[in-house]
Automatic annotation (TrEMBL):
Family per record: Belongs to the sel-1 family.
One cellular-component annotation, GO: endoplasmic reticulum membrane
InterPro entries: Sel1-like, Sel1_AlgK, TPR-like_helical_dom_sf
Name used for this protein in its record: Protein sel-1 1
Organism in which the protein naturally occurs: Portunus trituberculatus (Swimming crab)
Origin: domain of life: Eukaryota
Gene3D superfamilies: Tetratricopeptide repeat domain
Biological process, per Gene Ontology: ERAD pathway
Length: 92
């Protein structure tokens, strides 16, 4: 099943922007949500921004923060993906 979450994210992006399909923010939201639930970091970031700015959902900073935290925890669990100097500088 790996990859389906990213596929959902891609479909969400296509519906959000109208690439290849008519633009539908409601359908974009559905696909972003399934992508985020499946673990797509990009979908989680997209949903966080949508909840923060109120795009096709009621603006909700707590929900946005929940999605941003999921991404930050995932990124923080892979310290090898960031330069050591950067990590040491920002973990103080």
């Amino acid at each position: 099943m790996a990859g389906y979450a990213d596929a959902q994210m891609g479909l969400g992006f296509m519906f959000a922007t109208g690439i290849g399909k008519n633009s539908s923010q409601a359908k974009a939201l559905v696909h972003y949500t399934f992508g985020a639930l499946g673990g797509s970091q990009l979908a989680q970031m997209a949903l966080a921004y949508r909840y923060w700015s109120g795009i096709s959902v009621a603006s909700n900073c707590e929900t946005a923060l929940t999605y941003y935290r999921k991404v930050s925890h995932t990124v923080a669990s892979y310290p090898d993906s960031c330069p050591t100097q950067y990590m040491a500088k920002h973990r103080k």
